[in-house]
Design goal:
two-stranded antiparallel ribbon; 6 strands; alpha/beta; globular; 4-stranded parallel beta sheet; Ribosomal Protein L13p, Chain: A; single chain
Length: 142
């Protein structure tokens, strides 16, 4: 018996719609990362993008457990000396809640060229409206 290796174009990529209202950030992000990579499919191949597209709505209503809203800090560097910037999860939720889940999912993907291709299949919206009705996304419970 030979091992099956998926090749680009041999499989179809579906669209999934996930409602993030009341979901815990890390648990949602790990499920989304698995769907994006295609690890939930029997044809999963590590070096081929076999995953599906994911549309996440109502990200503004996502939950963080414990004291993470006040204690969790996100850092980025501007590129200039002394240019390290920080923002707490609570401030980031008010400013841009989509960035919160984007960074969580991005951190759960492998750090290579394929992950940069995979993260483009993630569409995140703070409210319940999205632009992907034409793709007929299937609602998925997590």
């Amino acid at each position: 018996m030979k091992t099956y290796v998926a090749k680009p174009g041999e499989f179809e990529q579906k669209w999934h719609l996930i409602d993030a209202r009341g979901q815990v950030l890390g648990r949602l992000a790990s499920e989304v990362a698995n769907i994006l990579r295609g690890k939930n499919k029997p044809i999963f191949t590590p070096h081929v993008d076999t995953g599906d597209y994911v549309v996440i709505v109502n990200v503004a209503d996502i939950r963080l457990t414990g004291n993470k809203l006040k204690d969790k800090v996100y850092y980025h560097h501007t590129g200039y000396p002394g240019g390290i910037k920080s923002i707490t999860a609570e401030e980031l939720m008010e400013k841009n809640p989509t960035e919160l889940i984007n960074s969580a999912v991005k951190g759960m993907l492998p750090k290579n060229k394929l992950s940069r291709q995979i993260i483009k299949k993630l569409k995140i919206y703070a409210g319940s409206e999205h632009q992907h009705e034409a793709q007929c996304p299937v609602a998925r419970e997590i």
